[in-house]
């Protein structure tokens, strides 16, 4: 039932389809998708994140992949973060428990 | 990271979110309806993100505390109203009559059914609560992060679990009965366990789930291990009922009166309880219930079980019931590392069996004292028969050893198979063996006879490893014998016979035996035995070099007499066993015929020229001689036989060379001419004149006894089918059990020797220590001598006295008594 990919939807309607394991870097999303709870997100595999904009969510997804890719390594290169997104990204990180 | 971020960006975010949700109540209303839906399992339409955002917003409004309290209240109301009602309704009145021990069968069944129903409901309620709370906690994750970090409150999950405990488990079932749900749960589970113990099948997983619940709940909010509800509420009651149950069970099993059943049942119970803990209850209880079992079921009953008449350990040992014994051992080992009652029982049985062996050996030996008497009366008409009972005694000695070895084997096997080669058991068995072996005063002699017999005949036709095993067996017994010096004396005596009479079947085996003893008892012990072997080899060389000497200086006209000689060091060989002198009676040496005397003198000359200053004394009693005898038949024919006889017999026969055919010599004449001691002379004459097959002499009158007035003739009609005839000396050479007098003498000699050993030990110790207290001296002497024998304390005291009298020692103190060494 649980498909390997999940869809993240930003507040302004952008959809990002990423691997489930990648999305679960976020504690919030992980709980959202926890199959033992019967929330609609867990059933549909679609998470609507209303207070995150598409631009930020894109960056978030990029970070998810970056995190997933480098989680077992040392000397990881820094991720490029545009300064204008800093604040919003931090807020999203807090919200998503990342 | 996240925390720091929140503080920095708080201002801009508030501006960002105000337009959407700024109202606490709106958010809460939304949230609370959703939470209720979660409880009623109606969550699939809910969006996690929405709920999460609601909670998130409330927390951002800095009202997380309020949210926390409201959720708690909501939970409390839910549990109190819905869940509690549901659970209590499942409790039927049957379950409330707890502790009703005398239950009829159908009531029992009813109770079981309703109990299961109740447990099911409770388990369902608990699991639902867990799932719902898991979901709610997830939704409120953001709140939890803030609350637990800032305010040190337990997470909402923990708090709600505590609520479950307070409002469901600890709620009173009905207003008229003062029982909580938890009490009912406890009594129900115990009831189920009781059912299972009596052999019924119960729903184990169900109980396991309820126990999980108790394990997951704590008395306090801090969740310490020790405050688990399982440990505080359920386990004590469980252990209490188990104690009562096993006390009764132990008594019940004892009443069946069969030790094997008891052990089997006990082992089963142990396995059963262990499994119960693992599969039904909590593994935490396993060591505790084990202790209950060990104490109530085993410790308090094991002694009685072991000593049960007819079926106890005694019976098991007798019937080689290895598996049952193993059970007994395992049970005993659980409760007591020393296994006291079991070892006591085993030891008792060993000593009993051992004493039986001792008794039967003595009984077999007792048959004799009557027989020799009647034997003496009818004068040895049938010497072969006469020898038989004597051998019987030897046989009984050997049988004793065999029996003991059999017993030892049996217990070794039991020890290995049933007692798992336990060290304590081994030492207990060893102690018992040495106890009964040493309680038989003849054990040393028997053992030595056993070796003697085997080295003479037993090992013929056996492989090396068989011989090895045989000797090892004997050595094992030697280990148990305390008076090793006594054994040495006997062994020396028997060995000397074997060596001198060439009775030993294999010199290799003899040497092997000595080296085994050396390993077992030590160098000092075998020194003299080895010296005996050395004498033998030296004598061989001596004999051959003497032969050469004789050939060189030979008188061509004289027929040479072959001489094979053994020169023995008198201190190393048991001289007293060879010569039959008694007391201080001075005995003149035997008079040898002139032919022999010449040889004797020539050898003496030869020997003394090689070793100046030595004294040779001749032991005629130990020798043998080959003589060629010519019999002139009355019909004129001449028949020759070669006779192999003892030295004394040779001396006697040579006398008849000078006696005309029809004349006789009286006993007294023979004695006067040869000076052979009475004892030996009688025996030799008996074998020459009485034994039916070797009647070289004729006796007048013809009777079994030899009397001083008897006359002896040379028997020219001697018949034998063989050219060579061996004439043994009646009961002379065989190694056999000593009679009463001989034993007394051996003991006396032993005591003298021991006295000397004790003195030597005392002097050795004192020379080293200069002064020493009495008690310490005693203990040192005992420890030094214990390898060889167990000294008698009184004897040591007497020896010390005597040393003081002879001014080797002096008393230097009175309190405590102390001795000093006088240089």
Automatic annotation (TrEMBL), chain A:
Main location: nucleus
A Pfam family per the record: Skp1_POZ
GO biological process: ubiquitin-dependent protein catabolic process
Stretches assigned to the SKP1 component POZ domain: 5-67
Any one Gene Ontology cellular component term annotated for this protein: nucleus
Localisation: Nucleus
Keywords linked to the UniProt accession: Nucleus
Role summary: Essential component of the SCF (SKP1-CUL1-F-box protein) E3 ubiquitin ligase complexes, which mediate the ubiquitination and subsequent proteasomal degradation of target proteins. Controls sulfur metabolite repression, probably by mediating the inactivation or degradation of the metR transcription factor.
Quaternary assembly: Component of the SCF (SKP1-CUL1-F-box protein) E3 ubiquitin ligase complexes.
Protein family according to the UniProt entry: Belongs to the SKP1 family.
Protein name per its UniProtKB record: E3 ubiquitin ligase complex SCF subunit sconC
Species for this entry: Aspergillus coremiiformis
Automatic annotation (TrEMBL), chain B:
Residue ranges constituting the Cullin family profile domain according to the UniProt record: 442-689
Keywords, sorted A to Z: Isopeptide bond, Ubl conjugation
SUPFAM superfamilies assigned to the protein according to its UniProt record, in alphabetical order: Cullin homology domain, Cullin repeat-like, Winged helix' DNA-binding domain
Cross-referenced PROSITE patterns: CULLIN_1, CULLIN_2
Gene Ontology terms for molecular function: ubiquitin protein ligase binding
Protein name: Cullin
Keyword Ubl conjugation carried by entry: yes
One GO CC term, this protein: cullin-RING ubiquitin ligase complex
Source lineage: Eukaryota, Fungi, Dikarya, Ascomycota, Pezizomycotina
Basic residues: bias regions: 1-13
Regions crossing the membrane: none
Domain of life assignment: Eukaryota
Biased composition (Basic and acidic residues): 372-389
GO term, biological process aspect, one: ubiquitin-dependent protein catabolic process
Ranges for region Disordered: 1-22, 371-391
Record InterPro entries: Cullin, Cullin-like_AB, Cullin_CS, Cullin_homology, Cullin_homology_sf, Cullin_N, Cullin_neddylation_domain, Cullin_repeat-like_dom_sf
Family: Belongs to the cullin family.
Alphabetical list of Pfam families matching this protein: Cullin, Cullin_AB, Cullin_Nedd8
């Amino acid at each position: 039932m649980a498909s390997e990919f999940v869809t993240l939807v930003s507040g302004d309607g952008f959809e990002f389809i990423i691997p489930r394991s990648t999305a679960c870097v976020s504690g919030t999303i992980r709980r959202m998708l926890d199959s033992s709870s019967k929330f609609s997100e867990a059933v549909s595999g679609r998470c609507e994140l209303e207070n995150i904009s598409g631009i930020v969510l894109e960056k978030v997804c990029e970070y998810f992949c970056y995190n997933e890719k480098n989680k077992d390594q040392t000397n990881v290169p820094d991720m490029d973060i545009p300064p204008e997104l800093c604040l919003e990204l931090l807020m999203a990180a807090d919200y998503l428990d990342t | 990271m996240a925390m720091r971020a929140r503080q920095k960006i708080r201002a801009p975010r508030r501006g960002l979110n105000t337009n959407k949700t700024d109202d606490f109540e709106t958010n809460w209303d939304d949230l609370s309806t959703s939470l209720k839906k979660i409880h009623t399992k109606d969550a699939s339409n809910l969006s996690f993100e929405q709920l999460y955002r609601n909670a998130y917003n409330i927390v951002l409004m800095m009202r997380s505390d309020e949210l926390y309290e409201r959720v708690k209240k909501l939970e409390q109301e839910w549990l109190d109203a819905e869940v509690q009602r549901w659970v209590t309704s499942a409790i039927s009145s049957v379950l409330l009559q707890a502790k009703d021990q005398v239950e009829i069968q159908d009531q029992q069944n009813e109770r079981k059914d309703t109990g299961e129903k109740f447990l099911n409901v409770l388990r369902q309620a608990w699991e639902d609560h867990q799932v719902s709370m898991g979901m709610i906690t997830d939704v409120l994750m953001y709140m939890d992060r803030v609350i637990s970090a800032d305010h040190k409150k337990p997470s909402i999950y923990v708090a709600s679990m505590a609520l479950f405990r307070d409002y469901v488990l600890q709620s009173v079932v009905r207003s008229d009965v003062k029982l909580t749900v938890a009490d009912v749960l406890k009594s129900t589970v115990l009831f189920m366990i009781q059912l299972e113990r009596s052999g019924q099948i119960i729903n184990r997983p169900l109980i396991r789930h309820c126990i999980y619940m108790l394990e997951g709940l704590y008395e306090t909010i801090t969740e310490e291990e020790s405050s688990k509800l399982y440990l505080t509420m359920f386990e004590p009651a469980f252990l209490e009922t188990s104690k009562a149950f096993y006390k009764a069970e132990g008594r019940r099993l004892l009443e069946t009166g069969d030790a094997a059943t008891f052990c089997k049942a006990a082992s089963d119970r142990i396995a059963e309880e262990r499994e119960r803990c693992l599969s039904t209850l909590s593994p935490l209880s396993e060591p505790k219930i084990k202790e209950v079992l060990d104490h109530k079921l085993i410790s308090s009953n094991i002694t009685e079980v072991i000593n049960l008449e007819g079926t106890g350990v005694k019976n098991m040992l007798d019937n080689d019931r290895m598996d049952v014994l193993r059970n007994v051992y395992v049970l005993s080992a659980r409760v007591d590392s020393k296994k006291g009652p079991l070892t006591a029982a085993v030891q008792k049985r060993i000593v009993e069996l051992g004493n039986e062996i001792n008794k039967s050996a003595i009984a077999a030996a007792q048959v004799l004292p009557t027989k020799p008497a009647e034997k003496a009366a009818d004068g040895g008409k049938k010497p072969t028969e006469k020898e038989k009972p004597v051998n019987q005694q030897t046989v009984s000695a050997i049988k004793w050893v065999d029996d003991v070895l059999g017993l030892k084997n049996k217990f070794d096997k039991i020890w290995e198979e049933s007692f798992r080669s336990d060290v304590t058991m081994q030492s207990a068995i060893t102690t018992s063996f040495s106890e009964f072996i040493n309680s038989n005063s003849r054990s040393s002699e028997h053992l030595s006879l056993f070796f003697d017999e085997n080295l003479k005949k037993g090992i013929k036709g056996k492989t090396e490893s068989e011989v090895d095993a045989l000797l090892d067996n004997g050595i094992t017994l030697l280990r148990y014998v305390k008076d090793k010096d006594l054994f040495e004396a006997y062994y020396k005596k028997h060995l000397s016979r074997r060596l001198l009479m060439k009775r030993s079947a294999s010199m290799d085996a003899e040497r092997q035996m000595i080296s085994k003893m050396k390993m077992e008892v030590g160098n000092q012990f075998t020194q003299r035995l080895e010296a005996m072997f050395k004498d033998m080899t030296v004598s061989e060389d001596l004999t051959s070099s003497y032969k050469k000497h004789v050939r060189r200086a030979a008188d061509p006209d004289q027929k040479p007499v072959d001489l094979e000689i053994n020169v023995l060091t008198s201190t190393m060989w048991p001289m007293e066993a060879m010569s039959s002198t008694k007391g201080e009676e001075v005995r003149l040496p035997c008079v040898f015929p002139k032919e022999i005397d010449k040889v004797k003198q020539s050898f003496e000359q030869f020997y003394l020229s090689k070793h100046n200053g030595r004294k040779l004394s001749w032991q005629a009693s130990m020798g043998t001689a080959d003589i060629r005898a010519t019999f002139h038949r009355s019909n004129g024919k001449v028949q020759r036989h070669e006779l192999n006889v003892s030295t004394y017999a040779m001396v006697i026969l040579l006398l008849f060379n000078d006696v005309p055919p029809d004349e006789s010599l009286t006993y007294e004449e023979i004695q006067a001419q040869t000076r052979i001691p009475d004892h030996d002379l009688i025996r030799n004459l008996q074998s020459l004149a009485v034994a039916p097959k070797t009647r070289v002499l004729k006796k007048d009158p013809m009777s079994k006894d030899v009397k001083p007035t008897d006359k002896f003739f040379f028997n020219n009609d001697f018949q034998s089918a063989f050219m060579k005839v061996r004439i043994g000396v009646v009961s002379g050479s065989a190694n056999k059990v000593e009679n009463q007098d001989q034993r007394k003498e051996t003991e006396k000699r032993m005591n003298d020797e021991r006295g000397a050993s004790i003195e030597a030990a005392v002097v050795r110790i004192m020379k080293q220590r200069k002064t020493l207290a009495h008690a310490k001296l005693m203990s040192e002497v005992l420890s030094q001598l214990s390898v060889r024998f167990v000294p008698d304390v009184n004897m040591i005291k007497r020896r010390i006295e005597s040393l003081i009298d002879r001014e080797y020692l002096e008393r230097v103190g009175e309190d405590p008594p102390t001795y000093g060494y006088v240089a």
